[in-house]
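Hello forum,

I keep getting stuck at the same step: I have a sequence, I want structure tokens, and every attempt I make locally crashes halfway through. Rather than fight my setup again tonight, could one of you with a working pipeline run this one for me? It's a single chain of 329 residues.
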Amino acid sequence: MTRQQPLSSQAPLMGVPGAVPPPGGEADWFRGAGGLRLRAALWRPSVLQAEKPRGTVIISPGRTEPIEKYYELAGNLLARGFCVLLHDWRGQGLSARLLPDRLKGHARAVEEFLDDYSRLIDAYSQQLPKPWLMIGHSMGATLNLLTLQSGDDRFAGALLSSPMFRIRTGKRSMWSVKLAVRWALRNGKGGDYVLDNVDDPFSHTFENDALTSDAARYSLWQQQLFACPHLAIGGPTWGWLGFALDAGERVLKARALKSVKVPVCVVQGGEDTVVWKQTARWAARRLGRGRYVEVPDARHEIIMEADALRSVFLQEFDELAAYLAPAKG
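Reply #2:
Ran it on my machine without issues. Output:
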């Protein structure tokens, strides 16, 4: 792959009272696979102006999630002396959408996402002090681990939150879901909502739809969504579901898991209703240097959870960072 061209004009970062971009950062556009315009944002720790940063953390959000949802985590990492790179995956946030209907959560192929991620790192590599650590949530966590399995040796370690290794399919068997996906894709239905479920994000409520037990953090995210409706994503398409199943099957191959030699910690919510925690535990134990930590009472979005639950995730980061990028003194 040829090296990326310099980043283009500055991109916006949205904010609402209580959830504004941390100081010391800026967003830009870069070109992903196929020339799609994608958004990324880089922060440098202002508190260490006279010191060399400890390293860089690259954060990869989950499905539907934009950069804006991770301001708090970015601030936590900046306070620990790390540069932070956040990005919008293709098809969400302010990155280019894949269908005319912006609310459709769509995807085509795993390779496109992995190519985008590689181009992101290439575009920013000269600005990112090492060591590099990955943080990924759900879909982002799965794509991060696939990147490591592909042989990318530029990263020192990874912290994965509720990885989307195997999604829960409710009362439907995985076999029947895969059969339905194959039928939909073969019959040109890849861009249609799964089971015609639009899942309007503007009608969501904490009581019925929250993936965290923290009402305050959920409310801040809803305020961001209404302040910038372009960030919103609705239900997944058959194309996205096919992509998710394919990514999960690839990442769970035993040989691929054993090939990952850097430290990888999987932090899994004990009350997750989106992905199977048993699969996350199984995969973590087959990684070359894997660690599995389950957080009782935590739902799918551990990074957005109540302080007592979220602190487990930050503690795991601190232990990983102390080993890979120890602070001076």
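Residues 1-6 have pLDDT under 50 and may be disordered. If your local run keeps crashing, start a new thread with the error log.
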